[in-house]
Design a protein that fits this description.
Oligomer: single chain
CATH architecture of one domain: Up-down Bundle
CATH superfamily of one domain: RecF/RecN/SMC, N-terminal domain
Strand order of the largest sheet: 2-1-4-5-6-7
Strand content: 15-25%
CATH class of one domain: Mainly Alpha
Largest sheet: 6 strands, antiparallel
Length: about 375
């Protein structure tokens, strides 16, 4: 991987081999930025900011990342090269093997599962976080999911604009009909795809949780639709019914009150809402189980295990949970784990992992990465 002008890195060239890779160093040294570089190559966007300009190293006039993915179908097959270039002002160029592509094309070549500190809010944080995570989980398993989300977002924006205009006496209710059909069609497709994904995740999730916390109950995920389906209803039927029931209230509020943009996801342990009673260790375990289940389900798509990125994952896990997690990591083709101190990592994992020390940037220079623990 080649990194140029990403946050604290001026220039870095590094090759991560197979198996677990242990990236360590003090806080703010650049460990998370290394993982961020891989997220950028996998998604075309950062998981840490929505403002691309923040990614470019201070004083630089461009950012460039290049990653070569070794072929898995034979030693003679060429690597796939992903390239992302970003300039101030938001000009972004993405290439796959030298051919310009859209960001969505990156995930076809570099599948990735990320556990970041921000994910700790998935259990107890706002519903929007869980919806975003659910969208990310669902998209790889539904070829039309991205286009349905785009259609739904456009229809939602138009409906909300019209509802505000109707409330203010500047439009007529009949004008909503133009956007109701694409709203219902795409919204129902999103809900159906999400529910199908959760059914696919159910057993891998429970199994992963048993693996990390074998003495606890069964972990599950429940989809909380605000347009609950009655017996015999399809997702479209329930959305249409709820839209009729809330039509006056929608005009009063000037916004759309039903649909997948208001749905939620609940983590359950033996049927109880995990958010109401769990410790932080239990929450972290549940989120880790979700990530491991995601890894398993993505692998079933074509037999290629995704790259697993774990940012400060071992904190707040007791020794028993750590040892169960280590056994899973050791069997993966490749995983990157960050920590501030290698001594905090399970001894078995340290023996199996290749260590990389991140050295913070000196004044006027950039951060560096060297192999080893000393």
């Amino acid at each position: 991987m080649s990194v140029r002008n990403l946050r604290g890195y001026a220039a870095l060239d590094i090759e991560f081999g197979p198996g677990p890779q242990l990236v360590w160093g003090p806080n703010a040294a650049g460990k998370t930025t290394l993982l961020e570089a891989m997220v950028l190559l996998a998604l075309g966007r950062s998981h840490r900011t929505t403002t691309d300009g923040e990614l470019i190293r201070w004083g630089a006039d461009f950012l460039r990342l290049e990653g070569a993915i070794a072929a898995t179908d034979g030693a003679e097959a060429p690597a796939t090269v992903l390239d992302l270039t970003l300039q101030p002002g938001g000009r972004k160029k993405i290439q796959v093997n030298g051919v310009p592509r859209r960001p969505a094309a990156l995930a076809q070549h570099l599948r990735m599962v990320l556990f970041a500190p921000e994910d700790m809010l998935l259990v107890v944080g706002p519903p929007a976080l869980r919806r975003t995570a659910l969208d990310g989980l669902t998209a790889p398993h539904s070829p039309s999911y991205g286009s349905n989300v785009a259609t739904y977002t456009r229809a939602l924006q138009q409906r909300n604009s019209l509802l505000r205009a109707i409330r203010d006496g500047e439009a007529d209710r009949d004008q909503l009909r133009l956007w109701d059909e694409p709203f219902l069609m795409s919204g129902a497709a999103i809900i159906a795809a999400r529910i199908q994904l959760l059914e696919l995740l159910a057993e891998p999730l429970a199994a992963a949780h048993r693996e990390i916390a074998p003495l606890e109950g069964r972990l599950g995920l429940s989809y909380m639709a605000n347009a609950t389906q009655l017996i015999g209803e399809t997702p479209r039927d329930s959305l249409a019914r709820r839209m009729r029931e809330t039509s006056d209230k929608e005009v009063w509020n000037g916004s759309t009150l039903v649909g997948p943009h208001r749905d939620d996801l609940t983590f359950t342990l033996d049927g109880r809402d995990l958010a109401t009673f769990s410790s932080r260790g239990q929450q972290r375990t549940a989120i880790l189980a979700l990530k491991l289940a995601e890894l398993d389900v993505l692998t079933t798509l074509d037999g290629r295990p995704p790259l697993l990125l774990l940012d400060d994952v071992f904190s707040e896990l007791d020794p028993s949970r750590r040892s169960h997690l280590v056994r899973r990591l050791a069997d993966l083709p490749q995983a990157l784990i960050t920590t501030t101190d290698p001594a905090d990592i399970d001894a078995d994992l340290r023996r199996k992992a290749r260590p990389w020390r991140v050295v913070p940037a000196a004044e006027g220079g950039g951060a560096t990465v060297v192999e080893g623990e000393s």
